[in-house]
């Protein structure tokens, strides 16, 4: 046997309507909370990945700088004596005229 609503149409009690609205609102809020939690989890994963990438980038950059410094030091010319760099014995630069 099926239940039949015998109430007159449009005469739903205020309390029942309010309870229905509250339930619907709770369902919507729960959905929004779940979505926010999912987004926070995704952002946390992205931030962790970005942090790892940043650390890898900094490590590569430091390695590059070390290699550049090693090459710079490897091919440095020997220091020039004061007699060959254009200075006189007192350390002053010589003037060249044309």
UniProtKB/TrEMBL annotation:
Q: Compositionally biased, Basic residues: which spans?
A: 89-98
Q: Which domain of life is it from?
A: Eukaryota
Q: Where is this region: Disordered?
A: 63-98
Q: Output compositional bias ranges, type Basic and acidic residues.
A: 63-77
Name of this chain's protein: Uncharacterized protein
Q: Which organism is it from?
A: Digitaria exilis
